[in-house]
Amino acid sequence: MIEVYIGFLMIFFIGCVSLIGIVMISLREKTLDKILLILVAFGTGAILATALFSLIPEAIHHMEELKSEGVNFNENFLFLYIISGFIIFFFIERFIYWFHGHGHETEDKLVCYSNKTGVADELLEKGGKIRSYVYLNLLGDGLHNFLDGVIIIVSFLSGIAYGIIISLAVLFHELPQEVGDYGILVYGGFTKKKAIEYNFLSAMIALLGGILGYILSNQIRVFNIFILAFSGGGFLYIACTELMLEFTKQKNLKKSIIQALIFLSGLLLIIMLVIILPHE
Question: Where are the domains positioned within the chain?
Answer without folding.
Answer: 2-275
